[in-house]
Specification:
Layout: E1 2-11, H1 24-45, E2 57-64, H2 77-90, E3 101-108, E4 116-125
Parallel strand pairs: 2-3
Antiparallel strand pairs: 1-4, 2-4
Length: 132
């Protein structure tokens, strides 16, 4: 099974969770900033990495919070979606819909202690089953 691992660090002032209340413009500004940054990073990190040979791939999103306190990794869905959209913009996969991507499965990571959140995207390509 081939794995591709990408880590994205997100400043606290751009972090947005799905349980946060506020104007849609604030969410849009933050997710757009994360998507732009993730696009540049993904484009550079995926350069030379072979694209998957068959679909769908499995995506795991490991969310690293700021502290060891209570944290629900699935609340980071807006940030993960922005990152998956950025990977789509690089052309590495045709789309992030269910034809090409299974998941994301959310997992809790350890705090990185830098005053930033981190999202590690793990892309797993399953071995292709032999067809009779």
């Amino acid at each position: 099974m081939r794995r591709t691992v990408l880590t994205f660090r997100i400043p606290k002032n751009e972090w947005w969770t799905q349980n946060r209340r506020g104007a849609w413009q604030a969410k849009y500004r933050r997710t757009s900033a994360v998507k732009r940054r993730a696009y540049i990073l993904a484009r550079n990190q995926l350069r030379g990495v072979p694209r998957p040979s068959h679909w769908p791939v499995r995506v795991i999103a490991r969310i690293s919070p700021l502290t060891h306190g209570r944290f629900d990794p699935e609340n980071a869905a807006p940030m993960v979606k922005a990152i998956l959209d950025a990977i789509t913009l690089t052309g590495w996969w045709p789309d992030d819909n269910s034809t090409y991507v299974t998941g994301p499965d959310y997992r809790r990571g350890d705090p990185i202690g830098s005053g930033r959140y981190a999202i590690t995207i793990i892309i797993q390509e399953a071995e292709q089953e032999n067809q009779p």
